[in-house]
Each structure stands twice: as structure tokens, then as C-alpha cells.
Amino acid sequence: MLAVSGLHAHYGRAHILSDVALEARQGEVLVLLGRNGAGKSTTMKAIMGLVPPSAGQVRLDGADLAGQEPHVIARAGIGYVPEERRIFTDLTVMENLAVGRRPPRACLAPWTPERLFALFPNLGEMRNRPGGRMSGGEQQMLTIARTLMGNPRLLLLDEPSEGLSPLIVEQMANTILQLKREGLTVLLSEQNLHFAGLVSDRATVIEQGRIRWSGTFAALEADAAAQAQYLSV
Ligand SMILES: Nc1ncnc2c1ncn2[C@@H]1O[C@H](COP(=O)(O)OP(=O)(O)OP(=O)(O)O)[C@@H](O)[C@H]1O
Question: I need a surface site. Which of 13, 50, 56, 64 has the fewest CB within 10 A?
Fold first, then answer.
């Protein structure tokens, strides 16, 4: 469904991504793993058009989106949840969701607040609460819920487990598995191998802006050398 190839990106003169390639198949969870500063967020931003790629392709079901504006890429069906939470703190949960609403797509059931509250029961209990009066974990869930209101086919989740308590991390993993059951394709970026293992089908490992390893998550779990070389601190 998503096929990235030969992707390069720069910040000014700094060459950050070199020849990045990855593929997420329809309905799977692919995790992009790497240490701090490896290039995970930049890869997601380049896919989303927030950092313009200097070369390469970003194909969604065959159509090349590289170089398009972020709103065009969003309209093509990619939803992006950045690392930093992006909610409107003065708006309630319901109002935040209304801001994210976009037309449904033929292939997937459209998201409504009620469907989202089945997925995120906490949000349902605080539907009239302003975003600014929610915990970090709740704000993270609301950011994901608001992105889902745009009815994406592919969801990019940048380090969703970061800074969350173990209990909320477990809820986050269940949410991602539920989204997969609903037919969504997910590209997740993570440093946390344990969290990635709860949800991921396949893994791609990035280091210093280059892809170093790709395969099933089970194969990565069995590959102690790759883990030591590219992932341990
Ligand atoms: N706006 C920017 N300007 C210049 N350099 C940047 C900018 N953002 C990130 N970088 C650099 O690009 C490299 C990749 O950063 P990136 O944020 O993609 O890594 P990451 O794997 O997502 O790590 P993290 O877990 O810290 O977010 C790092 O060396 C970082 O210092």
C-alpha cells in the first residue's frame, strides 16, 4: 500500500535521510525502529510532505505523492500523528473531533465520535472537557482520535508510547491492534522494542538516516546482533 523508495531529505545543508526504502502492506502494522536522532520523525515528515524530499518516491497504492503539499497527501488518505500532541486546548473533546472531520472513503467505515468513543472509552467520559484539562495520555488518544476523523487509510504514528505510563502504553497497544482489525494500515515509529513487539507485523530499522534492516518482527526479535548494533543504547 505504501512504498517508499530512494528517499532523501535535508535540513538546510545537512543530509538527514539517504536512500530510505520501506513498504507497508495493506492492513499490517509496520514499525520503523531506531535510536534517538536516527531519522524516524524525518522519514514520517518526508512521507507527509512536511519536510520536502530532495529525491525519491512515496507511493500510496501506486500513486507517487513525493513533493506534494501535506494537505494533498492527507486528502490521498494518509493521517499523521506527530510526536508532540496537537490538540486545541481551549476546545472540548467533541470540538476537537469536529475539527478533524473529513469526508469518508469508500473502502473503510467512516469514523464518528461514537465509534471513536468505543475505541477510546476515556474520551467518551470527558466529551465536554477542554483538551487543556486532560492528562498527557488522554491528549495523545485525542490526537489519534482527531486524526481518525479524517478517515485515513494509512496512519503514521510517531512514537505514540513516549512519555506514557505502563498502563496507558498497554491501552495504546490495544488501540493499535483494534485499528488493524478495522482494516487500517499503520506505520509506527518507535524506540521501544517491547511496545513495538505488542503490535507490529514487520519491522524496518533506521540508523543515521539509512535503512539497515527489514523483515518480520519475529526475525528481528531473534536477531540479537542487529538489535545490539542498531537499537541498544
Ligand atoms: N529541524 C531540524 N533542523 C536540523 N536538524 C534536524 C531538525 N530536526 C531533526 N534534525 C536532525 O535530524 C536527525 C534525525 O532526527 P529525527 O527527529 O528524524 O530522529 P528520530 O529518529 O525521530 O529521533 P527522536 O526519537 O529524537 O525523534 C537528527 O540528527 C536531528 O538532530
Answer: 13
